[in-house]
Amino acid sequence: MINWVAMGAGVVAAFLLGFVIYGPFLGLQRRWAEGTRINPDPPATMPVGPMLAQIVSLAFLALVIAMTETTGALGVAMVAILAVATQTASVGAWAQKSGFAMAVDVGYALLSGVVMILAHAAL
Length: 123
Description:
Blueprint: H1 4-22, H2 29-36, H3 48-71, H4 74-94, H5 99-122
Helix pairs in contact: 1-3, 1-5, 2-5, 3-4, 3-5, 4-5
């Protein structure tokens, strides 16, 4: 049976991790934005569309991890996380992002998966 609480906690934790990584907290925001070739100044309003897309993406990854947790297939969860990370790297390369920006994006994808697995371990 899927642990919906752990799944939800994983989504929320991974989303908040994105705020830490991409926000002003670590000082990566400007360099990442420049490497992504977008305006490095924070937007006047929250980018609702991209944030909703991110939540949906995180929910799908969390669901895969939750499903693998029910069968003890941690290896499958790890492969799914690696698939997300390599897809992120591929898209970044096609978009000609800087190596730094791609590393931030791939690191976020990997850490999101780790956070989701830890949510299941804790709950």
